[in-house]
Amino acid sequence: MADTSPEPLRTVILGQGYVGLPLAIRAAQAGHQVVGFDTDADRVKRLQAAESLSPDVPAEQIATALTNGLYTPTTRPEDLTGFEVAVIAVPTPLRDGAPDLSAIEHADQALAPHLRPGCVIILESTTYPRTTDGVLRPVLEAASGLRAGEEFHLGYSPERIDPGNRTWTLRNTPKIVSGIDEASLKAVGDFYRSLVDTVVEVAAVRDAELAKLLENTFRQVNIALVNELAVHARHLGTDIWAALDAASTKPFGFMRFNPGPGVGGHCLPVDPTYLSWQVRRQTGRALRLVEAADEVNSAMPAYIVQRLTEALNRKGLPVGGSRILLLGMAYKPNTGDIRKSPTITIARLLAGHGAHVEIADPHVDDPAGLDTRVHHSRLTSNTAAACDAVVLLTDHDAFDLQLVENHAPYVLDCRARLSGANVERL
User: Fold this and answer.
1) Quick check: pTM over 0.70?
2) What are 154's strand-pairing partners?
3) Which end of the chain, N or C, is more open, meaning fewer C-beta atoms within 10 Å of its C-beta?
4) What's the CA gap between 379 and 400, in Å, rounded?
5) What is the mean pLDDT of the chain?
6) Which candidate in 119, 267, 387, 414 is catalytic?
């Protein structure tokens, strides 16, 4: 179990997003003196006002940490001085199909002047194997003049944050830890034992880096399998949802994954590509199954538009000029996370065909960068009835699905949550 009375450590968490903010607040709750560093001045200003930017961190927890003086959000590199533990939890997106580690490199440069003998550096950002030892380590050593393993500790602990998950949280999800040597492994493990219930030690850092990619590649491949089956099941005269229900009764050798309009978030659209990119770079060979899975899942938004077009054509309506209500902008239920959401792609494609597109999502404010041809709406009996089609993309609990069944003239249900003569399932 987590030690609720750890020796307080001056801890820096670089990146205050979906990963870094929950970690920073949990560390403050455990008694550590936490500096939450981020380069986004607006984000820091909102955190200083105890405004939560994560579904996993209530605003009152931030307020308590601020009041107790255990959490300091900042954009000032000089506030990193004197840290004992530093965790890098910054984004690692893809740029033109290749990993972009610039945020990690900037975090390196911010930390390096403040390194001291005995301190602990931990990378949590998702990346490809050998990043910690081959990218992070040389920059830290060159800038600080200290040797990793001899004068400071270095390790990797992949994040396992599932935004909005109330069952598996940062505290009770087993935490993988690794270090470049035994002393680093112990130092990294000791820090996380003060925060979480279960620590899983992995001897080699590169294996811990691979484990993170494996976890999400496993999901990507299996979601692609059921997505591809969903596309072809209709032509076979079969019901993919009934088949999944039946297969799920097997108590061994089967794990259920459901089809949907595509994958979103930072993990599934990105992590498997990190793995396939690194394999190609080092071996010259392709991870064929992984690349095929990405192709299948990336094609799902266009398939949803195709299905909707076919349904409207059967009613004698062209897509152009039709009023279409999309339910759910976030990529997963009961969150406001729209990162790489397939809904945004679907909305753009429909608008490009001349449709009047509206999106209803009670968890999402009007986001910057949304196609100007797409408008925000609310799900009401009037809006449902006034649309030519309603598409359920994200099954938020807040949606009144009975209202949709009762009032929408046609529904394309991508989550198998509705029924009725006016409902067609993916």
Assistant:
1) yes
2) 121
3) N
4) 8
5) 93
6) 267
